[in-house]
Design a protein that fits this description.
CATH superfamily: NAD(P)-binding Rossmann-like Domain
Helix content: 40-55%
Structural class: alpha/beta
Keywords: Oxidoreductase
Number of helices: 9
CATH architecture: 3-Layer(aba) Sandwich
Number of strands: 7
Number of domains: 1
Enzyme class: oxidoreductase
GO molecular function, one term: 2,3-dihydroxy-2,3-dihydro-phenylpropionate dehydrogenase activity
Oligomer: single chain
CATH topology: Rossmann fold
Organism: Paenibacillus auburnensis
Protein name: 3-phenylpropionate-dihydrodiol/cinnamic acid-dihydrodiol dehydrogenase
Radius of gyration: 18 Å
CATH class: Alpha Beta
Largest sheet: 7 strands, parallel
Strand order of the largest sheet: 3-2-1-4-5-6-7
Strand content: 5-15%
């Protein structure tokens, strides 16, 4: 897919991975719309990055997503790429009695439900285009869980499964909509988690944001089904041979590392 003269929506586009991709899409000559919960934050990003378009929307809220879809249909009817990136990550101990059920499921509402809501709401618009694409950002943790962020891991596995099912339904309908799953490892420049910001763990599993953007763009241009970036590729390959052993060893390593920091 040629990534020029496209109209692209990037959810969670005010920081981190979403913002980095939005800037690159803009540099390549596309119309780029970013979303985020905070209108103030959107206004600041748009002001500092002329050319970006911002719309406040909460992907975890179906009514907000419906309003976003209506606005896009009116003002950006040529929308042909949706980059589902909005996500949050919480680390917690399941044995901590102070953790509420709302805290346990917050990531599901944003990471998984948000991806589903946005995709469902915008499929009719994408289906009208000659060629379209949906990019769902999952994670290294779609392949192997991280013990200190159990719900986050579950949401990213869900994004992976949803992407596969979505792709098959699109094929059955005969629509020219590509579905690509982007699976980053830890990205040190994002604020998603500070657990692996320093030391050996960071060097072993992290990937510079610029390299992720490069890999993601190349994957989109080639209509790849899945882009396993950096350490994700290593872990996905390893899980084919001894998944239970690797999951246990990895989980204990993460917990012990976190306990020392």
């Amino acid at each position: 897919m040629k990534l020029v003269n496209r109209t692209i929506l990037v959810t969670g586009g005010t920081s981190g991975i979403g913002f980095a991709f939005a800037k690159r899409f803009l540099e390549m000559g596309n119309t780029v719309i970013i979303t985020g919960r905070s209108q103030e934050r959107i206004d600041q990003v748009v002001k500092n990055n002329p050319g970006l378009i911002g719309i406040a929307a909460d992907v975890s809220d179906p009514k907000s997503v419906e309003q976003l879809a209506k606005e896009l249909a009116v003002y950006y009817p040529k929308l042909d790429i949706v980059f589902n990136n909005a996500g949050i990550m919480h680390e917690f101990d399941l044995f901590d009695e102070s953790i509420t059920y709302e805290q346990l499921t917050a990531e599901i509402n944003t990471n998984l439900n948000g991806t589903i809501y946005v995709t469902k709401a915008l499929l009719p618009l994408l289906a009208k285009q000659q060629e379209a694409m949906i990019v769902n950002v999952s994670s290294l943790l779609a392949n192997i869980t991280v013990a200190n962020a159990p719900t986050y891991s579950a949401t990213k596995a869900g994004v992976h499964m949803f992407s596969d099912a979505l792709r098959e339904q699109i094929r059955a309908k005969g629509k020219n909509i590509h579905v690509m799953e982007l699976c980053p490892p830890v990205i040190s420049e994002t604020n998603l988690t500070d657990t692996y910001d320093e030391g050996f763990m960071n060097k072993m599993i992290s990937l510079p944001l610029a390299k992720l953007v490069y890999a993601g763009i190349k994957g989109m241009e080639k209509n790849k089904l899945r882009v396993n970036a950096g350490f994700t590729k290593v872990m996905r390959f390893s899980m084919k041979f001894a998944p239970d052993f690797i999951t246990h060893t990895w989980g204990q390593m993460i917990l012990k590392y976190e306990a020392k920091t």
